[in-house]
Amino acid sequence: MGGPSPLDVFAPLSNPQAERIAALAARIGRETADCAVLLFPLPMPAETRQRFETETVSAIAEVLDEFGQLTPSDRQSFQQIAALALDRRLAHHAMQGQTGGQA
Length: 103
Prior knowledge:
single chain; mainly alpha
């Protein structure tokens, strides 16, 4: 590829494309978690959760391919954002379930 990644050159706050990709990655993670809790009761078995984590990584990889050339470290960062969003949304649903709220 040559040269530094555009995401390394510009801080995320000054790079609208990086912000859009990060927001999209987080949305993918949240929506995957929402689907998971609709299909399976919490706490879900570890292998079921792993399946949704794998699906999240696959979905964000497909989206990142559409954005062109990103460095492996940029891809990893966006995959981590998606994984974190999935984890936090699942935790949110679990907490709602424990407090009697609607998950």
